């Protein structure tokens, strides 16, 4: 039911990828003979005639650029979709559609680093990963978008947890791996393949699945710095609202370097994401993960057609919002609604957190337990325990450090005209509110209690705009509202006055 027609060395082959057993005939057809596994492997490893090319290519093996084969490229060019762990004499001609950043790890077994590639030819795609030594040997030699001849990698069953590529196998670079850059002008290898999903169809997509999308960025949010609740790590994010011809719009969240480098000055750019992750948080939303490939204003026919549609009629159309007002991954969106404390207490925030903005005044600041001594490692914010006069142990990192850093966990009581609520402000939000860094405040607490008290009380009875995440939590059969401030800003009196005038006009009819 599925196969590939291929031609190697002047011979035609049909590579069977999938078949269905319909029935077993009563009599044998022909005179089949049973062969051993060794015979199967030996037959598969027979090298067909080599492929000849006239162009010279750059060879990379073991990190060294060396002489090329006589024909300019290796032989045995196989389609990606035909690869399996029982083969070893093969070469693929593939385009690097994605090259990841170098990532590091540290655990009980040691430390290391890795990078990954997503490779594509006419038959399909495959993921390729290089560890530690391979990072030093190959990372700087490979460019995203270029075509390479790759051979002698290790093939194994793919771990679907770390890839959205539709291939049962993945490759690992080893000491014998050879990578040859294809210098031909016409490589014959297509660009990125997209299986586009319309934004309106995201409702039928499963949570945590991956889709390819292309849309016009109608809104581009600012870069936000947040703290992950699970790990305590500092994360950078940006939200972009995408609209396509299906009459719908969705919130797309960018993380890390892609959030920081996205050009917010562009006017309604075309944004294309391969393998965007679907979330059911706040209706339907998308995020760019480490599996995703992001392109802005790609130079292809689909992008130009979408741009022409938006300029001619799309920008004036009414669209369905797939992401709710608290949409986006992990935080408040560009359209966080304004709600009072009374309104938020009356809402149903039991199952999912609710995001809202509120203009409120600080009426009390808790000084007790407002900060703690944390691990000095940049990737860890866990509490440390003092083992001696100048040694501090982090249980998570399992290391002893000569120092620590202070982390803020400030609790304040906020009040609006409908009531008041306790709200927790973590590191960045608390530092912005107090106008002082955590380390400076910690030094005041240790050396000058009077200055510390002044820093903590100077914000009393001042009014700010807060973006807050609220959720109902039940303890001992009693429900209580837990609120966390995601951001804090001074009151913009002009904007707030305009908002009040619009609300008055609505009341007047």
Description:
The chain is 16% helix and 39% strand. It is α+β, with helices and mostly antiparallel strands and 509 residues long. Helix 7 crosses helix 8. The chain is globular, with a radius of gyration of 29 Å.
Summarize the structure.
The chain contains nine helices and 29 strands. It is α+β, with helices and mostly antiparallel strands.
Largest sheet: 10 strands, mixed
Instruction: Note the total helix count.
Output: 9
Radius of gyration based on Cα positions: 29 Å
Quick one: overall form? globular
Distance between the termini: 65 Å
Portion of residues in beta strands equals 35-45%
Strand-pairing-aware structural class: alpha+beta
Number of strands: 29
- The percentage helix is 10-25%
What average pLDDT do the residues reach? 82
Regions with pLDDT < 50 over 5+ consecutive residues? 47-59, 62-72, 325-334
Provide the fold topology.
Blueprint: E1 2-8, E2 11-18, H1 37-44, E3 58-61, E4 64-66, E5 91-99, E6 103-107, E7 110-120, E8 125-131, H2 133-138, E9 147-151, E10 154-157, E11 169-172, E12 178-181, E13 210-220, E14 224-227, E15 234-243, E16 248-255, H3 256-261, E17 270-279, E18 285-287, E19 293-296, H4 301-312, E20 320-321, H5 341-346, E21 354-365, E22 371-374, E23 384-388, E24 391-394, E25 399-401, E26 405-416, E27 419-426, H6 427-434, H7 438-447, H8 449-457, E28 463-475, E29 478-490, H9 493-508
Parallel strand pairs: 8-11, 16-18, 16-20, 27-29
Antiparallel strand pairs: 1-2, 3-4, 3-12, 5-7, 5-9, 6-7, 7-8, 9-12, 10-11, 13-15, 13-17, 14-15, 15-16, 17-18, 17-19, 21-26, 21-28, 22-26, 23-24, 24-25, 26-27, 28-29
Helix pairs in contact: 7-8
């Amino acid at each position: 039911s599925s196969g590939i027609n291929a031609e190697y060395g002047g011979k035609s082959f049909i590579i069977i990828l999938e078949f269905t057993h319909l029935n077993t005939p009563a009599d044998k057809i022909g005179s089949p003979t049973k062969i051993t596994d060794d015979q199967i492997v030996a037959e598969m490893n027979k090298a067909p005639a080599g492929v000849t090319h006239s162009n010279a290519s750059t060879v990379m093996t073991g990190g060294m650029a060396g002489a090329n084969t006589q024909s300019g490229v290796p032989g045995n060019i196989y389609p990606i979709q035909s690869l399996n762990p029982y083969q070893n004499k093969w070469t693929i001609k593939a385009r690097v559609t994605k090259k990841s950043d170098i990532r590091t790890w540290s655990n009980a077994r040691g430390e290391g680093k890795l990078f990954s590639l997503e490779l594509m030819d006419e038959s399909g795609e495959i993921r390729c990963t290089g560890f530690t030594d391979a990072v030093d040997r190959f990372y700087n030699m490979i460019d995203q978008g270029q075509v390479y001849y790759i051979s002698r990698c290790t093939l194994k069953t793919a771990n679907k947890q770390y890839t959205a590529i539709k291939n049962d196998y993945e490759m690992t670079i080893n000491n014998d791996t050879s990578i040859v850059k294809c210098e031909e002008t016409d490589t014959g290898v297509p660009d990125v393949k997209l299986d586009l999903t319309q934004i309106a169809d995201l409702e039928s997509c499963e949570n945590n699945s991956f889709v390819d999308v292309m849309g016009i960025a109608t809104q581009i949010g600012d870069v936000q710095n947040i703290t992950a609740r699970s790990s305590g790590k500092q994360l950078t994010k940006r939200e972009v609202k995408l609209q396509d011809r299906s009459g719908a719009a969705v919130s797309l969240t960018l993380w890390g370097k892609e959030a920081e480098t996205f050009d917010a000055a562009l006017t309604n750019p075309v944004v294309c994401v391969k393998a965007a992750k679907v979330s059911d948080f706040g209706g339907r939303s998308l995020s760019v993960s480490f599996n995703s490939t992001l392109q802005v204003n790609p130079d292809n026919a689909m992008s130009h057609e979408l741009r022409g549609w938006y300029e001619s009629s799309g920008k004036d159309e009414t669209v369905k919002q797939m992401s709710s007002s608290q949409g986006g991954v992990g935080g408040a969106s560009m359209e966080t609604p304004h709600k009072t404390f009374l309104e938020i207490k009356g809402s149903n925030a039991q199952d999912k957190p609710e995001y809202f903005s509120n203009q409120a005044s600080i009426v009390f600041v808790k000084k007790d337990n407002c900060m703690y001594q944390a691990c000095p490692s940049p990737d860890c914010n866990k509490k440390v325990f003092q083992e001696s006069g100048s040694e501090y142990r982090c249980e998570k990192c399992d290391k002893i450090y000569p120092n620590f850093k202070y982390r803020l966990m400030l609790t304040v009581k906020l009040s609006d005209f409908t009531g008041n609520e306790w709200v927790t402000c973590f590191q960045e939000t608390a530092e912005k509110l107090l106008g002082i860094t955590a380390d400076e405040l910690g030094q005041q607490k240790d050396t000058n209690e009077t200055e510390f008290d002044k820093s903590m009380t100077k914000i009393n009875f001042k009014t700010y705009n807060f973006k807050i995440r609220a959720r109902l939590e039940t303890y001992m059969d009693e429900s209580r509202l837990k609120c966390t401030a995601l951001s804090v800003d001074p009151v913009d009196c002009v904007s707030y006055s305009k908002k009040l005038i619009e609300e008055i006009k609505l009341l007047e009819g």
